[in-house]
Amino acid sequence: MLEIEIFSDAICPWCFIGKRRLEAALCDENSDIDPNVTLRWRPYMLYPNLPLRGVDRAEMLRARFGPRGDKGGVPAVILAEAASQHIELRYDLIDRTPNTRMAHRLVEWIAQCHGWHAQHEIAESLFQAYFCDGKDVGDFTTLAALAEPHGLHGRQAQEVLQGTGELGQRLNEEIDVQLHRATELGVSGVPGYVMGGAYLLPGAQSVETMRAIIARAKEKFST
Questions:
Q1: Given this model, what pLDDT does residue 69 score?
Q2: Quick check: 32 and 24 in contact, CB under 8 A?
Q3: Which of 120, 151, 166, 211 has the fewest CB atoms within 10 Å, i.e. the most exposed one?
Q4: DSSP letters along 8-61, please?
């Protein structure tokens, strides 16, 4: 069995594109993921120093790029690559750039409680919410709605999403461990795919490249 760890952030468009390409590389004609592979989503924060409530995206772009900063001005290559994976990026709907730590706690909790298939599903839900629906994935209400089908509600939702109590503290500690581990593994941008705990494949590679490298990794790292 080969484990592929996916270091990713919910507000990274290439991570969304990479998810679709990874699925294409792993899935058969019935859309079933290779039974000899497991997936594990890991945290990465593109903007770790953002305030917990995030920032106004238009203001952030103007601060970085000056008057030419336009929240709808997305490089054509990203839009085209996303479209090739049947993704319509709706940056025009996105009002805030969120701090994603709350989202990472949710992703980690789902993995621990429900396994990697459910974690893979919530990763898709987060990408869809942010990039296709323009929702704030750093907002408690938004994330609580995404988490509810997975049985997260009440006091447990408060602890997981707000990082409080023993459960929230444990999730925060795991996120910190994995963020540090990402640096040790050489993950300097996302997506980053770590195979067998050792080999790093950086970036949203083509389906053909991913398929070939995964095949070699299965031979070398499968346990």
A1: 56
A2: no
A3: 166
A4: E-TT-HHHHHHHHHHHHHHB-TT--B-TTEEEEEEE--SSTTS-TT-EEHHHHH
